[in-house]
Amino acid sequence: MSPHPPKRALVTGGSAGIGKETVRALAAQGCEVIVAARDASKGEAVLAAIQAEHPGAQLSFHALDLSQPDAVVAFAQQVRARWDRIDALVLNAGLFTPALRTGSTGHEFMFATTHLGHFMLTHQLLPLVEAAPAGRIVVTSSVAHFFGGGLDFDSLREPSPSTFLMAAPFRAYGRSKLANLLFVRELARRLKGSKVLVNSFHPGSVKTEIWRGTPSLFNALIAPGLISEREGAQTQIFLATSPALTQSGQHWFRKKVERGSRPSRDPELARQLWTYSEQALGIKHFGRPQGPVDVAQARRA
Q: Which domains does the chain have, with CATH numbers?
């Protein structure tokens, strides 16, 4: 065994957009990268292309649907069985749905995938991040969190069917991104004094596949202001790898700390979301996974 093994990162949503560019950059730095995403054929093709660019890169792809808690648990168990640490857990996967629907947990799909899926994955893999000499957890949020309101917990299981001017879907998307930021604040508070740094960031308005579900007129209006995927990934790469980083529990944009919305800085709201998420997923001791999750029991609670 090498006395200085390469750093290891796990990136969700690493088959497209800024996730793909982050995987490419980490591979170029000699980091071993575990990529998890929904589309297996796309993911394997992306990794093959990056492997061709960097022949010595250590890359592996795993199909993962974050909206399915049982699938997240099964994936995490495979990761824990194979690897002893994760230096950077990059929770990058995100999506926008033009029509609101519920996932298997009974919650609005964007919230279920982007927040609850990553909440469960972090719960399952936190011991591996804590085992790293200087673990990092990086969460992709968005400026859209300003439109997430203050988190109406009663509406999470009954999303509005309205798509009028995309108002309800955009608000739900913003809510999922607000949840990402609140998760970071509370997790950092709980890990204060540990070696793990937890941060979120806004990548900017990036030209990625996430806009494929929005109206063509809207796409035409925003297209001139969009930045490249590679540019949008820079802050994520910085938060995952920079030895100069010391802050935790912060929200970043262009490698600088941003205040975020007032609700995103509400510690009581962060604690309420944490409790809600644990109950929704049937988690009793966060970061100490024990056995399979009983989602059906959690939904009845």
A: 8-300 (3.40.50.720)
